[in-house]
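[PROTEIN RECORD]
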Amino acid sequence: MFRVFIIGFLLFFNLYGIDSDALKAFKNKEYAKAFELYEKSAQDGDSASQSALSYLYANGLGVEKDTKKSIFWLEKAADGFNASAQYDIGMMYLDGYNVEQNKTKALNYLSKSSKLNNPNAKFNLALMYYKGDAVDINATKTAELLESAALQGHKEAIKNVGRLYMQILKFDKASKWLEINAKDGDKEAYYLLAEIYCEQSKFKQAKKWAKKSMEDGNPKASALYEKYKLNKY
């Protein structure tokens, strides 16, 4: 139904979340100094610095590139309740990027990040529930996660949550989101709304969206229009 939404290695943005001499050094491209300062804070248990240190190891900035140490510090940050780090390492385990693929670990980290309100984690966790990756298929859970991410403005979640609600026959919720999609120019949403409103016997609303879909050249909309005799409304 919907595609994986992978932001990638987000640690660069974590660096910019730190107001410190280390960040100033990083901005000035004094990477050896930045590494030294981040390492000290990381060893003291600061999760943001642990993420930053992971990034420096991953990219060989101020230190010799070392993927294993990068993963070590990223997991430290994730275990320290850093939502971005939890998302990053979760996606790495999901995709098998720089680590052995482990969907159970991916589920664990994405679940933790989702509970800390990371919308990207919610979206990809929803996909795991939809596909049954390391967890039982659960369309209702998928819809809940998608809607939560959509309410935070996640574009892919906004695009897909109405379609998911339609699949599980929650038409009121489906129409709410599909109306948003349609107003954003999603042409498939025109027809889906027409279908929903016909199912709910809201024929005047169905006519509006069927006509828009017909104008877009959708033959299924024409068949729907005839089947329900929408010209009467």
